[in-house]
Amino acid sequence: MSSTPVLAGFHPDPSICRVGEDYYLANSTFEYLPGVPIHRSRDLVAWEPVGSALDRPEQLATRPGIAGASGGIYAPTLRHHDGRFWLITTNLQEITRGHLIVHAADPSGTWSEPVFVPGLIGIDPDLSWDENGVCRLTWSDVVRGGISQAVIDPFTGEVRSDVRELWRGTGGAHAEGPHLIRRGTWWYLIVAEGGTGPGHMVTIARSAAPDGPFEACPSNPILTHRSTSAAVQSTGHADLVECVDGTWATVYLGTRPRGSFPRWHTNGRETFIAGIDWVDDWPVVDESRFGEPSDAAGFVDDFDSATLHPRWIAPGVHPGSFARPRLGGGLELKRGRASNATAAERLLAVRAVHPNWTARVQADGDVALSVRIDDAHQVLVEHVGGRVRARIAIGPLAQVVGEVEAPPHAQLEIRSTEPVVERGAPRGPDVIEAGYRVVDEFTRLARLDGRYLSTEVAGGFTGRVIGMEALGDAVVVRRFELEPA
C-alpha cells in the first residue's frame, strides 16, 4: 500500500486515459486558474505537466475572494476518441449553463473554445462512445439524485435523448464522480460514494449495454480506507485505464491527515495509483502494485524563461494577466491588494506538495509571501515601506503579530515544521513559522499551529498554496524557492 501520491498537493478528482504508450491525467482546480492541469506519463508513477485545458479567460472565469473559494471547476473527465482529446467538466459558478466541453488534437497545444450542454444540471460529467460512435454524457444528477445519462453531440452540446437514470449506488451518501468504461462485453460504471471525506469509497456496477440496466458488484466497495488506521484516508473518486501491457490500473484521490485525534490534512486531496486485477469480470484493487513513488522535489525559480512554469496558479484571475517574466530574468508583478487588506486580488501561487517545507521570496518593492487555504485562513509575511511584518488571518480575525524594520537584503520566509510537544499533549499536523532571513539567519515573527490552515478547519475542496502578491507598484520578484524539510 503506497502512502506517497503520484501527484502531491491539491490534485483531486483524477481522470485518466491512454494514447499509445502515453498516459494522460486531468484534475479539478476549483477557483484556481489556469483550469484543469494535464499531466503525461509513460509509467503511471512519474508525471510531467504538459499544460492546462482551460488556460484562457474566454474559456473560463472563476470568482476571487472568500465567496469564490472552492467554486469554479469541479471534477473533469479526460478521454481520447477518434483522434481527439476530449475534456468535460462543470464550472460551479456557471452551473446553469450546463457542463463544459473542450477538445484538442494535442493536450499540450491549444484547446477549443468551450461548448455547453444545456439542461442537464449536475456535477462530475463523463463522456463515453459506443461502437457506433454514439456519445453519452453520464453525470451526478443533483436534480433527480443518483447517476443519470443522456446522448449528446460533443461538438455542439446538443442533447439528443431523454434523460435516463442509470444507478443510485449502493446506499452511500452522494453518488457522484461517475466514469463509464468498456472492457470486453461489459460496460462498467465506476462511482464515488460516501462523500469526499472519511467515508469515501469506490463502488462499481456493470451492464451489457452502456445505458443499463446495471448490476452492482457483490464485493462493493472495491476501494475504501474508511474506519482504518491507514496513512492515506478519504480514498475514492477513481478512474480506470488499460495499460500498454494489457493489465489495468486505477487512479484515485486520497488525503494524508496528520497530528493527534481527530487529525488534519493540509495539502488537499492528492492523486494515488493502484493496480487492477479482474476476477469473474469484476475489478479487484491491488494497492501494492506500483510501490512507493518518489517524493515531490523542491525547486528554485529565477523566472529566466519567457513563460511561467505550469506550476504557477492564481485564485480567480489568470496568472498571465498580472505576472510577466522579464527579459534577462525576474518576474514583474502588477499591484494586487491594498497593503492593509487580506483578501488576495493578484496572488501568484504554487501548491504545497510536501508535508514540511520552506519557502522564500527575494523581491524588489513591496511584496507579500503567504501560505493559505483561502482568504480567511492564511499566514502572511509582508515587506511594506521599509518594514517587515507578519499577519495571521483565521476566520473573521486578522491581526499583525510581529513587525520590525526591514534589514537590508532580507528575504521573506515561511516554513512548515514538525511540531515539538510534550508526550501525550495534543499536536496539530505541523507548525507554520513566518519571518525573514538575512544570509543564514532566520528571524521568526509569527508562529501558528498548522491545524488552523487545514481543510478540517477551513472547509472546502482545495488545499494549501504558497503564494506571493505585489503590495505596490514596480515589484520585481528575483527568486522564489520551495524546498522540502
Rounded radius of gyration (Å): 23 Å
CATH superfamily of the largest domain: Glycosyl hydrolase domain, family 43
- Averaging pLDDT over every residue, what do you get? 96
Q: State the end-to-end CA separation.
A: 24 Å
Poorly predicted regions: none
- Which structural category do the helix and sheet elements fall into? mainly beta
Largest sheet: 8 strands, antiparallel
Sum up the overall morphology in one term. Answer: globular
The CATH topology of the largest domain is given as: Tachylectin-2, Chain A
Strand content: over 45%
The top-level CATH class of the largest domain is Mainly Beta
The CATH architecture classification of the largest domain is 5 Propeller
- What is the helix tally? 1
Could you walk me through the main structural features you see in this protein, from its secondary elements to its overall organization?
With 485 residues, the protein is mainly beta. It folds into 2 domains: 272 residues, Glycosyl hydrolase domain, family 43 (Tachylectin-2, Chain A); 186 residues, Jelly Rolls, CATH 2.60.120.200. It has 1 helix and 37 strands. The strands form 8 sheets. Strands 23, 25, 26, 28, 33, 34, 35 and 37 form an 8-stranded antiparallel beta sheet that branches. The protein has a 6-stranded antiparallel beta sheet with strand order 27-36-29-30-31-32, with no helix packed on it. It is globular. 50% of the residues are buried. The model has no long low-confidence stretch (mean pLDDT 96).
